[in-house]
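A reminder before we start the practical. When you read a complex entry, don't treat the lines as separate problems. The point of joint prediction is that each chain is placed relative to the others, so the output describes one connected object in space. Small molecules and nucleic acid strands, if listed, are placed in the same frame. In the example below there are two entries. Take a minute to note the order of the lines before looking further.
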Amino acid sequence: MIHVYAFVDELERLPAVAGVGGAPLEVLSAAGLTAVAGRIDGRDDVDGHDAAVAHGVVVEALLDSAGAVVPVRFGERFADLTEFALATAERAASLRASLDHVRGCAEIVVRIPTTAPAQAATGTAYLHARLADEQRVAELGRRLHAFARATAETRNGEVAYLVRRAEAARALRAAEAFAAEHPDLTVRCTGPWAPYSFAGGAA
Amino acid sequence: MTVTRSPVLGEHVTLVDLVDRVLNKGVTLTGDVVLSVADVDLVYVGLRVILASVGTLERLDAEAAA
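Here is the predicted structure of the whole assembly.
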């Protein structure tokens, strides 16, 4: 069974981290694309939370060793190379486009919690609070606009910003400065992450 | 008693983020994620339970040390 972590371009080296189930990492090629994968046959702990963490650690490590990383969702597994190659060939064009889109980039994720009470006194009060929420998100967006090559709204009211890796630290500082100016808000900012939110989504 | 934010707890919060990302984002190849999704819920619950336990343990440790 082949477990796929990510598609990559310009892979300099395989990261020195243990894969899912402790299986070593290897490079696969199909349809002109390069993937990093592991053979998990006979391995223990390939489905639990440790496995999910291991998958994430590999993907994040790839960010340091490849020019472009398109993360693959946890759980994509193939019986053999033929099956993997078939699935890859079907989506080769969009995978190639995703690799080009995220080349040299990582993402930072910012969450600004809503201040609208679940039980507002009036509908107007609720809408005012929601409007204030949107204005804050827009303000942060303006500050990060200089860095962001793309944005993606994710569930949980998070916004992901695709930024050049070299500028990720500056983008994070800009978000932190915004947070410092709004002590009433618990702005949550994490990253830089591998660009999951810009991987191309569902098949 | 001085309350300090535990860096260890911070790392665990990031771990939740990490797991959330690998389970819910990223490109899919097979389009057949039903099994994964079913599994994911279990993984998620498991991780949250563990996190709660870790947090509780840390609090107890801190109280014991105070």
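Discuss with your neighbour: The interface with chain A takes residues 14-15, 17-19, 21-31, 33, 35-36, 39-40, 43-44, 46-47, 50 of chain B (CB under 8 Å). What might explain this?
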